[in-house]
Amino acid sequence: MPRIDFAFGAPDRLRTACQVVRKQYLAGQRLVVYCTDASRLSAFDRLLWALDDISFIPHVLATDALASVTPVLLTASDPARAAAAAGPEGTPPWLLNLDDDCPPGYDGYERVLEIVSQDDADRQAARQRWRAYAAAGHEPQSHAIGGAQRGQQG
């Protein structure tokens, strides 16, 4: 059963997600980023390229020929299939969900990361995902952006 972490209070969901991806990439963690909204996934892709002038985060679409050797995969379809494309067995990649709904097949991941902005619609969608994870038997963890731990949401 994966650990599910929600980070609440991001000033900008995609920029914060890029920072999370950079941190995990530098720590050697492989990630699959899931979002069915093509424009949001494309914006995230562009942000990864332009996060800052001196860093580079190798990433490709999960359908790319280089997926098995690239540490960050982006997908708008089944994230379980993307995990399989992530290469040889070993430590499974983590899943970063940028979608408004819970990702399908998330149980195949060691960890699911949810970044939630201060936007009301984003927070409402996150509450729905929290309830769905809890209904499936998970105990999501809540973290406030900036480090202060918040109580569980629901």
Characterize the structure shown.
This protein has 154 residues and is an alpha/beta fold. The protein has a single domain, classed as Rossmann fold. It is 32% helix and 22% strand. It is built from four helices and seven strands, in the order βαβαββαββαβ. A seven-stranded parallel β-sheet has the order 3-4-2-5-6-1-7, sandwiched between helices. α1 crosses α2. The relative contact order is 0.24. The C terminus is likely disordered. Pfam families: DNA_pol3_chi. It comes from Bordetella genomosp. 10. One of its GO terms (molecular function) is DNA binding. This is DNA polymerase III subunit chi.
User: What's the helix-strand series?
Assistant: EHEHEEHEEHE
Gyration radius, in Å:
15 Å
- Assign the structural class, choosing from mainly alpha, mainly beta, alpha/beta, alpha+beta, or little secondary structure: alpha/beta
* Total discrete domains: 1
Q: What is the average of the pLDDT values?
A: 88
Structure described in brief:
By secondary structure, this protein is α/β, with parallel strands linked by helices. It has 4 helices and 7 strands; from the N terminus they run βαβαββαββαβ. The chain is globular.
Overview features:
4 helices, 7 strands, 32% helix, globular, 154 residues, Rossmann fold, alpha/beta
